[in-house]
Amino acid sequence: MIPLLFALTAQLTAPREEPVLTRRTFENAIVISVDGLRSDALIAISAKALPAFARLRRGASTLNARTDPDWTITLPNHTAMITGRFVEGDAGHAWTKNDDADAGETLESVKGSYVAGLFDVAHDRGFETQLYAGKSKFSIYDVSWNAEHGAPDVTGEDDGRDKLDRFVFELDTTKMVDGLLESLAREQSQRRLYFVHFAVTDLTGHAYGWDVSPNSRYMKAVQAVDVELARLLDALESSKLRDTTAIVLTADHGGGAPFKSHDQKHMWVNYIIPFIVWTGASGEPRDLYELNSSTRADPGLSRRPRDFAGLAPVRNGDAGNLALHLLGLSPVPGSTIGNAQDLRVFDSAH
Predict the structure, then answer these.
(1) pTM of this prediction?
(2) H or E stretch including 76?
(3) Which CATH architecture does the domain made up of 24-326 adopt?
(4) Residue 298 has pLDDT above 90, yes or no
(5) b or e along 31-62 (b: 16 or more beta carbons within 10 Å of the residue's beta carbon)?
(6) Were both Cys, which of 12, 194, 254, 275 would link to 65 (CB 3.0–4.6 Å)?
């Protein structure tokens, strides 16, 4: 584990060649969460063994992003990605539960006030919105933003209160991606925002531990996700979607091999995660901290508390507002992570 930690640190500081990146706004965005993906899993084995992750990283990325500083469990961090809020604090989303919601429970009922998400912004501006998840508890988002509980649309044409057009819970990863690919193939003129959640890595980690040795069950699960990501990239790159689609990939937390858990927020194996942005461009990987030296600071191995006075690290909570920015849309109302939409993924300002 320690050699991998040093290797991760070396990758964060190694010089990189300048890629050729183009400024543009996209018609489609896919936010991907690989549940329980440790950053060092992506360098624990040869890039040839994880070819899709290698393809995704031929853009802007970091292996030293952060989870929410106070929580390293699934639903609190996914809610942070979708709402652009920390879990705790007056402006936080306040969702700490990590099981299926009780009947009638919504993000608003727990917070005490409406909690907007990236689906609000996209749907109210005419985008189709879809969420594919490998865990049933993600239904909290479908319920929180349905026709009963979603906020009225006061932006342009009334697209209704149901902010999530399609919610799919599917345990079988391949079948889940089948559905995603079928959706992408239909009506390619339709602007769309997807959120895709891969559960197999987390489920394997809890069952067998987050062991990053090459032939471990956990690494086999990471490779299984890589196979599905390759299918997605192949579909995009073989169609006009390559030029109109952006991918933002991150994780909700990592995990520790000996504990088969990830709820110890002070352990680096739990709070260090990847953050990868694919825009169809080619080139050598470019570090997000190099691109954003005036607004983000590489935290080293520090967890970086919520009230840290210096520059913020890249967090998984940046994913939602970055995806909206790549679509040319405004930030999530009430968001505090990435709400300035100043996370650069191109060489020039965008």
Answers:
(1) 0.92
(2) helix 74-83
(3) 3-Layer(aba) Sandwich (3.40)
(4) yes
(5) bbbbbbbbbbbbbbbeeeebbbbebbbbbbbb
(6) 275
